[in-house]
From TrEMBL:
Keywords: Hydrolase, Lipid degradation, Lipid metabolism, Signal. Pfam families: Abhydro_lipase. The lineage of its organism: Eukaryota, Viridiplantae, Streptophyta, Embryophyta, Tracheophyta. Belongs to the AB hydrolase superfamily. Lipase family. GO terms for biological process: lipid catabolic process. One of its GO terms (molecular function) is hydrolase activity, acting on ester bonds. It comes from Cajanus cajan. This is Lipase.
Length: 403
């Protein structure tokens, strides 16, 4: 990669971390202790759901590899009317958590809309995020705690969430809706035959499967840079941690370049047309560096495969073969109901890559696959647009009704 590109990219990335005030990359020594985590007095129910006048329950589920994750349940809508529809499990994407679904006003946010429409709403928080950073033996200060990618989100977190809801609700099969990486978690799990028997259907908003034609320049550059030099990224996380003079300097550059929050988001996710002005959530949740490396492998190779250790011995040790096994989207059962919605302006789940996924699904039963393209939507519109209810959620609920 050309030197100027690296520089441009590094400035954009630094601006993102500074402007969002985020800890995008995991760092040592800034995590609450495990005790504080389990006793999460100020959890999502208290801070984000009950404040809007909804009943909310906090739940904990432990994955088969020991991670202790939180879920929130909104068991009833504002009217207090009895739930008359099945559970829906909502799975957020990367750098976010369940608040993704609650960020706009109740009339605009999917989490609240589903509750008000009679669904039993369950919100999942993937490992590593603020309210899901417990583990039976590890804590987030341990390097081993972060030894995962979306392979584990699909094979451990998702099955744990689904199984928990299924058990808790008296073996009710549920609908699933995922955004961004939450769609890849479902696609990977479904293609491996996991959780199918407990799901009624799956709604995929901004499906991430193939990533080779991604049009987000910063992300594309990130993928290249990652492979070229991991230390580069580690340097950034250290930079972030130190803060102080260094971060003031960067903030200065960002301000001079006029890279404010909204145009940075556009650079990364596409020009979102319709973000609600009701709230601007700038929080960003951590993820494992290994997860980002895994995603960058997909961007470079165009394949949907398990994490590549980049060395034959390690791959053989983990997989019994020298190349990481592929996920085959054509194995998703043809009669399993799928709702796929994507945006014409999305730079992460770009239309060309989504088309590749749809090609894999070309033999799917026609009446079990709904495809909804919103030409003017980009990546964040699907969870934050003021008109997402009319554009996406109403059709999605109509799809849930008949499946
Ligand atoms: C669900 O119930 C089954 C059978 O009782 C049990 O084996 C499993 O551990 C439970 N799983 C969860 C996540 O609650
Ligand atoms: C961000 O900057 C762009 C121009 O670079 C400007 O049009 C936009 O209004 C700014 N947004 C905010 C929230 O300041």
């Amino acid at each position: 990669m050309a030197n100027t590109e690296v520089k441009l990219f590094s400035i954009v990335l630094l601006c993102i971390t500074v402007v969002r005030g985020s800890k995008t990359f995991h760092q040592n020594n800034e995590w609450p202790t495990l005790d504080a985590v389990i006793n999460d007095v100020g959890g999502i129910c208290k801070t984000t759901v009950e404040t809007q006048g909804y009943t909310c329950e906090e739940h904990k589920v432990t994955t088969n590899d020991g991670y202790i994750l939180s879920m929130q349940r909104i068991p009833v809508g504002r009217s207090g009317k009895k739930v008359d529809k099945p559970p829906v499990l909502l799975q957020h994407g990367i750098f976010s958590d369940a608040k993704t679904w609650l960020g706009n006003s109740p009339d605009e946010s999917l989490g609240f809309i589903l509750a008000d429409n009679g669904y039993d709403v369950w919100l999942a928080n993937a490992r590593g995020t603020q309210y899901s950073n417990g583990h039976k033996t590890l804590n987030p200060n341990d390097k081993a705690y972060w030894d995962w990618s979306w392979d584990e989100l699909a094979s451990y977190d998702l099955p744990a969430f689904v199984q928990y809801v299924y058990n808790y609700t008296g073996q009710q099969r549920m609908h699933y809706a995922g955004h961004s990486l939450g769609t890849l978690m479902a696609l990977a799990a479904l293609s491996q035959g996991q959780v199918l028997n407990m799901l009624r259907s799956s709604a995929l908003l901004c499906p991430i499967a193939y990533m080779n034609q991604i049009t987000s320049l910063p992300v594309k550059l990130a993928a290249d840079t990652f492979i070229a030099n991991d230390l580069y990224w580690l340097g950034i996380s250290e930079f972030n941690q130190n803060g102080g003079a260094g971060s003031n300097f960067v903030e200065d550059i960002c301000n001079k370049l006029n890279l404010n929050y909204s145009n940075l988001m556009s650079l990364v996710t596409g020009p979102n047309c319709c973000l609600s002005s009701s709230k601007t959530d700038r929080s960003s949740e951590p993820t494992a560096t290994k997860n980002l490396i895994h995603l960058s492998q997909m961007i470079r190779t165009g394949k949907i495969a398990k994490y590549d250790y980049g060395d034959l011995v390690q791959n053989t040790m983990h997989y019994g073969q020298i190349f990481p096994p592929l996920y085959d989207m054509t194995t998703i059962p043809k009669e399993f109901p799928l709702f796929v919605s994507y945006g014409g302006q999305d730079m992460l789940a770009d239309v060309n890559d989504v088309q590749l996924l749809l090609n894999d699904l070309k033999d799917h039963d026609k009446n079990k696959l709904v495809v909804l393209l919103k030409e003017n939507y980009a990546h964040i519109d699907f969870v934050r647009a003021f008109n997402a209810k009319q554009m996406v959620y109403d059709p999605m609920m109509a799809f849930f009704q008949i499946n």
